Write the structure tokens for this entry.
Amino acid sequence: MDADLLSDTFVELADTMVADFDVIDFLHLLTDRSVILLSASAAGVMLADPRGELRVAASSNEAAGLLDLFQIQNDEGPCLDCYRTGQPVTATDLSGSGQRWPQFAAAATQYGFRTVEALPMRLRNQVIGALNLFRGTAGPFDPPTLRLGQALADVATIGLLQERSVRRGDVLAEQLQGALNSRVTIEQAKGKLAERLGIDMDEAFTVLREHARNSNQKLTDVARNFVTGASLDFPPAPRPPAARA
């Protein structure tokens, strides 16, 4: 494991008090680093809206986001059970018989996932969502990996709960609703950019995110401007990353 990356990740997840804090970019940082640090195939974050209903907030790739959405639409899956109970939920071989969540298992297998680990995003008794880890092979994540995954989820939760909370008691509801609204705009921008450049949705998101960082703008602002017709000088579509040694 990359110790420097691990250290940097905890610092970044804890540092939510900066003036230009971007919830969406923060959540995508959580999913991206979870994939790398926890040896997952993909990761996703579900957050509860002000009414307590789960929404897809971020995912490391399109397949994970669609699978999380499938759980919400069908009211079935380990991630929903995790949020409702506040406890980790494991599905270690979704291709086997006698599935607890038959519709979800079939969908997950179709997307190439055989193992899912759902970790609660909680602080004491307050559960605000779940961090979902997907893997293409059957078998559980090992205990040290799950402890680290829960630590990442806990630090991210604390960061979200503390962000400007000293000033306003209703900040969490507003913040989460804002994040969910922003995700809709980002999805629209991804689709528009994917069509324009002839790339897939994951590549389109990478282009949007890199443009936001390179131009020192919030991801949501870049997406909104693009959707509303602003002329943005996007770089060429990204090349697939080189295989890790």
The first helix runs from residue 3 to 14. Confidence is low (pLDDT under 50) at residues 237-245. The chain has nine helices and five strands. The domain at 179-227 is CATH 1.10.10 (Arc Repressor Mutant, subunit A).
